[in-house]
Write a structure and sequence with these properties.
flat
């Protein structure tokens, strides 16, 4: 009997030891003193971020120079013109994003009319055209249409002016490119 008690006591001591060692290993580690966060990454300061962005820009410029096969002196002439074209292209694309918005091009969603999908027949009052009203219930004036027409006209004029600027910037860039560089710019989407 004493032998059984001895084995029981040893088994219990071993079990308790395993539990304690598991608890000790599960403790969180203190962060390293060098400021590294999760995954060993360090948090960058604003100055470090600026330096990293400058390095990225420099690499992008070097890659562009290599793709165009241009010398450093040629890039001094090409870079401002390329940046101008890229800026105007970004501005031209930005107008389409604003037009789409979050809801796409518009249209009604399901269930906005009370009879859709229910199988009920529409009453004559529901099919007659209603007079447009504002949110507060007052009749909408014709000036809303005129305002929208004027805004669309102004938007179209601004886009046409932006396209003219883009066309002019592309011509200025094309004047200083070699045929190989021009082909690369067409492939990169800067020229058409």
């Amino acid at each position: 009997m004493s032998r059984t008690k001895l084995w029981m006591a040893l088994a219990m001591a071993g079990f308790i030891g395993l539990c304690w060692s598991g608890q000790a290993m599960a403790q969180t580690k203190a962060p390293p003193a060098d400021g590294a966060g999760r995954g060993g990454r360090t948090r960058m300061t604003a100055e470090q971020m600026r330096e990293r962005m400058e390095e990225w820009r420099q690499r992008a410029d070097d890659q562009l120079r290599e793709r165009l096969g241009a010398t450093v002196e040629e890039m001094k002439v090409l870079k401002p013109r390329i940046e101008k074209v890229q800026t105007l292209q970004r501005e031209a694309r930005g107008g389409m994003r604003g037009m789409m918005g979050f809801g796409g091009f518009g249209g009604r969603t399901r269930g906005t009319r009370g009879t859709r999908g229910t199988g009920a027949t529409a009453t004559p009052a529901a099919t007659t055209p209603r007079t447009p009203t504002n949110r507060d219930g007052t009749p909408r004036e014709q000036t809303d249409v005129e305002k929208k027409t004027a805004a669309l006209t102004a938007l179209r004029a601004a886009r046409a002016k932006g396209q003219q600027k883009l066309t002019q910037a592309r011509k200025e860039l094309q004047e200083v490119l070699t045929p190989r560089q021009e082909a690369m710019c067409v492939l990169m989407g800067m020229l058409v």
